[in-house]
From TrEMBL:
One of its GO terms (molecular function) is peptide-methionine (R)-S-oxide reductase activity. Its cofactor is Zn(2+). Residues 70-194 form the MsrB domain. This is Peptide-methionine (R)-S-oxide reductase. The keyword Oxidoreductase applies. Keywords: Metal-binding, Oxidoreductase, Zinc. Coiled coil: none annotated. The lineage of its organism: Eukaryota, Fungi, Dikarya, Ascomycota, Pezizomycotina. It catalyses: L-methionyl-[protein] + [thioredoxin]-disulfide + H2O = L-methionyl-(R)-S-oxide-[protein] + [thioredoxin]-dithiol. Binds 1 zinc ion per subunit. GO terms for biological process: protein repair; response to oxidative stress. Its EC number is 1.8.4.12.
Length: 205
């Protein structure tokens, strides 16, 4: 009949509860810190850029009429344009210049080489945070299979210079003629309110 004495029980309880208390205190003190870190790093979206970010460029060995070295591209593109267009980066969602841009007419051109890519009437509201188009100007955009990150996606690049534009997603159920969504980084494009450039290119092809 040897029961632990009351002080021993008390000590055990105290040790246990103290551990628990300490653990939860630690948890609490870590929590805001971690949250702070996540919030602080949100504007640059390191997670997203590591997810969609720079990867070996599969299209660099493809033939595109416009060929430039990285140094030449750096001379004509700003840092972010270079990261997205030449290193296959992805801009943060909902902040791009053309995300909510819905002009009646005009043309979106490649920010790297000015080739016309999309017409204003190809654009639709997808709500995904990036400019969305259901089709492109014929021949302006080239597709590649992108197998990075353990999934299969379709990368789209400018046919003229090989600049990375974004990805194409199919069968998402948008009410568009193609049921495709060209999810394009705003920074990869410029906009011209005139359609003339496109007509010139169309007649050339
Ligand atoms: Zn281009």
């Amino acid at each position: 009949m040897r029961f632990p004495t009351f002080p021993t029980l008390l000590r055990t309880f105290y040790t246990l509860s103290n551990c628990t208390a300490r653990a939860s205190t630690q948890y609490k003190s870590i929590q805001p810190l971690a949250r702070g870190t996540v919030l602080k790093s949100m504007p640059t979206i390191p997670f997203l850029s590591s997810l969609f970010g720079t990867s070996s460029s599969s299209s660099s060995n493809m033939s595109h009429p416009v060929q430039k070295s990285d140094d030449e591209w750096r001379a004509v593109l700003n840092k972010e344009q270079f990261r997205v267009l030449r290193q296959k980066g992805t801009e943060a969602p909902f902040v791009g210049k053309y995300d909510k841009h819905m002009p009646e007419e005009g043309v979106y051109t490649c920010a790297g080489c000015d080739a016309p890519l999309y017409k204003a009437n190809h654009k639709f509201k997808s709500g995904c945070g990036w400019p969305a188009y259901f089709d492109n100007i014929p021949g302006a955009v080239t597709r590649h299979e992108d197998r990075t990150l353990g999934m299969s996606r379709t990368e789209i690049v400018c046919s003229n210079c090989g600049g990375h534009l974004g990805h194409v997603f199919k069968g998402e159920g948008y009410n568009t003629p193609t049921d495709e969504r060209h999810c394009v980084n705003s920074i990869s494009m410029k906009f011209s309110p005139e359609d003339k450039v496109v007509d010139k290119t169309d007649s050339k092809v």
